Amino acid sequence: MADNSWSMRDLASVWHPFTQAFQAPPPIFIVRGKGSYLYTESEIAYLDAISSWWVNLHGHAHPHISQAIAKQAEILEHVLFAGFTHPQAICLAERLLSLLPKGYSRVFYSDNGSTSVEVAVKITFQVSGHGKTLLSFEGAYHGDTFGAMAAAGKTHFNRPFWPYLFQVHSISPPLPGKEAESWHAFQHSLRTYDIAAFLFEPIIQGSGGMHIHCKDSLTKMIQACQSQGVITIADEVMTGFGRTGPLFACEQLGAAPDIVCLSKGITGGFLPLGATIVKGFIFQAFLSPDPQKALLQGHSYTANPLACAAANASLDLLLTPECSQARSMIEKAHQQFQKEYGMHPKIKRCDCLGTILVIEYQTDHSSYYHPLKKSCRTYFSKNRSSSDLLEILSIYFPPIRSPIQNYKKSIPRFSFLWRHKNEQDFFFLFL
To answer: Which domains does the chain show, CATH number per domain?
Structure first.
C-alpha cells in the first residue's frame, strides 16, 4: 500500500498530539527505523533530527536493547507492582541510585516524564506540612498532566486550562547577566509566598527556549530552599542521560536537589518509563502505621518488566567508554562551531552545553508557532533523499568533506551541523 494511502487512513482515524488537524499536512508514514534513520514503505529515508522527541539515545532498533526486551518477554511481560516486584525493576533502581549524587534513597516508577513530575508534585504536597504554592521558572515545561501543567505556571502550552490549574508562582530564571534580578525575585518569593517546593529544569530549559542558567545562582537557590525546609525538585526528563555532558545535569550543581524526575532517554526510546527519585528524608516521611499516609499513586504499567529491561540495556550502552567519548567529541565540535559561526549575522544567540547546541535565529518574533517550523518541514520533505541529507551533513559530520562554499551553493537555505550515532541530536542553520 502506498505511503500516502496509509497517511490518509491515519487522518481518518487518529488524533495526533500538538497538532492542529484543521491545517496540518498529512503525517509521514513510517514502517521501520535503523540507526539514525526512519524509513517509509517506499524506502524513503528520513534522518531522525529530533531523536524522536529526545528519547532515542542509541539509534533505532539497536540490537542490544531489542534483544533484552525479547529475552524478558519470554520470562515475564508484566506484573502488578503494588505488592509484587521483579529483578529488572530492582536492578534498575540500584543502578540509578549508584549513578546519581549521594543521598538518594528510593526510586518510584511511573510511565513517562509528565507522570514522573506529577508524582514529585504529589509527594511535595503530601509531605510538606506548611507550603501550599509551587515555585518555578517562567517559560518552564514540565509535562501535560494537570499537576505537571500547573507546575510550569501559565504558558502557551497550557492556555486552555488556565482556569483549572492550582497556584504556582513563577520567576525569571538566572540567565547570564540577569542573575541578580532572578535572585531578588527568588528571595521575595520565599518571604512572600507559602512555598512548598521549588521545581526547575536544571541548567537548561527545554521547550521554554533552551535557555542556559547560571549554575552558581541555581545552586544558591537550592541551598536557600533546603535551609528553609522547601523541597527542591529537578526535572531531568530532558536533561538526563548525558544530554548536558555528565550523566545528569544536577551533577554540575553545588547542591543536590531533594527529588529528581527522569524519563525520555531512560529506555533509549524503546518503551515508556518514568522514575521519581527521592532522598531518604522524603521516603521516611511516608512511613506510618496509617495506610492513608502512603504515597497513593500508581499505574497499571508501573515498573513494567519490559520497560525496565530496556532501561537496563540502554544504561549498558550509555556507560560504555565509547559513548562517553562520543559525548566528549560532540561537545568539542559544538564549541568549535560556536567559535567559528556563533557571530553569523543571522544568528541571535549561539550557546552550547554538553551534547546540546542552541541556535536562536534573528526573526521578527519568538514563538513555538513561528512559521519557520513549517518552512523547515516543507523544505526537508522535498529534499529528503539519503544523498541530499549526507551532502548537508558533510559540513559538520567528521570527516569534513565539503567546504562551506560548496555547501552554500548546493544547499542555500539550511545546513545540519553535526550528527553522531550515539547521541542523535541535529541542528540546522539558516544561511
So the answer is: 66-318 (3.40.640.10), 321-410 (no CATH)
